[in-house]
Amino acid sequence: MSSERGGREVELQVGDELLKVRSGERLIDICEHHQTCIMFSCRAASCGTCAIVVEQGMENLSPVEGLEAIVVEEVSEGRPNVRLACQVRILGSACIRPLS
Predict the structure, then answer these.
(1) Are 100 and 55 in contact (CB under 8 A)?
(2) Rg of the Cα trace of the chain?
(3) With a cut of 70, which residues of the chain have pLDDT below it?
(4) Is the dihedral of CA 19, 20, 25, 30 positive or negative?
């Protein structure tokens, strides 16, 4: 995990779990460290297994880039605020849950 980066502490709600994390951390690292309900497979924005719904704080996540936009369009089925957890950095407080 990248807590050595010295980011400020923020709250991240993953499903029913409220976590204290550091801004700048990768969501995949946070989820694996805390063994959350978010599942991962390819870890490279190509399968959509880690699709999440951002219930609050979309503005506090790193921007969508490259392949993620294509995969999100395929897996979201038109639902708003969907991201791939393997591509997200936490920049501030947010609330997320698995897509499925």
Answers:
(1) no
(2) 12
(3) 1-6
(4) negative
